[in-house]
Design a protein that fits this description.
The protein is of the alpha+beta class and 233 residues long. 42% of the residues lie in helices and 23% in strands. It folds into two domains: 14-148, Sandwich (Jelly Rolls), CATH 2.60.120.10; 152-230, Winged helix-like DNA-binding domain superfamily/Winged helix DNA-binding domain (Arc Repressor Mutant, subunit A). It contains eight helices and eleven strands. The chain is globular and about 55 Å long.
């Protein structure tokens, strides 16, 4: 059974999204013209090197944005959750995607055609300003990531990556935070080899910081992770 298209005017993620400053008529127009797509775990939402034809807004699920390094290894540069937008930088620049977006689990996303999005940006100054702030934040986050990759040891970067996962995907009502993530994906966030991630995860388990069951990691002590991740700040 095909999922019904979410209505932008009543979307539960509207107030935390790029479209929070849209007026009712603009949201109605987005609903009328957008597509709603579902993706299986591991399915590509858009490919690095392709041309953008619109903007994606995650409705449900988890997404990684990654690129291949010169050595052929995957580097995860961003994690996205419900309410987050994808592909906006390439769309604004009218350039090819510099990274790929891939579903980390079963994911649903709205697709807004470029003509509709550009019309919205041209007519709504508040949305345009929010977009500029998003671009500035993304640039700052990228700079911070490169600095940490250059300066922080792997153990500290792994602690930081686990906190990033927690801060991105934990729901308010949850106690201990758990997430199913492959060791390859975790290594791609940290910027190291899978074997190195496995070794440091084992150390964290011995220290009572995390527990693991299969691919699922549960954070038992976020405070200890904060201390470890801040050693070189």
């Amino acid at each position: 059974m095909k999922a019904s298209i979410p209505v932008c005017t009543t979307c539960e993620f509207k107030n935390n999204s790029l479209f929070r400053n849209c007026v009712f008529q603009e949201l109605e127009s987005l609903t009328e013209n957008k597509c709603f797509n579902t993706y299986k775990k591991g399915q590509v939402i858009f490919h690095e090197g392709n041309r953008p034809f619109g903007l994606f807004c995650v409705f449900n699920g988890k997404v990684k944005v990654s690129r291949l390094g010169s050595d052929g290894k995957e580097q995860i540069i961003r994690l996205a959750k419900s309410g987050d937008t994808l592909g906006y930088r390439s769309l604004i620049e009218n350039s090819k995607y510099t990274a790929s977006a891939i579903a980390l689990d079963d994911t649903e996303a709205c697709f807004i055609p470029a003509t509709d999005f550009n019309k919205l940006i041209d007519s709504n100054v508040k949305v345009a300003n929010d977009l500029m702030r998003m671009l500035a934040k993304a640039l700052g986050d990228t700079q911070d990531k490169f600095i940490h990759l250059a300066m922080k040891p792997v153990r500290e970067r792994l602690a930081e990556a686990l906190l990033l996962l927690k801060n991105t995907y934990q729901k308010k009502e949850e106690g201990y935070f758990s997430i199913a993530i492959s060791r390859e994906d975790l290594a791609a966030i940290v910027g190291t080899a899978k074997e190195t991630v496995i070794r440091f995860l084992s150390e964290f388990k011995e220290e009572g910081i995390v527990s693991t069951q299969g691919s699922t990691i549960t954070i038992l002590s976020a405070d200890k992770l904060v201390k470890i991740s801040s050693l070189y700040d």
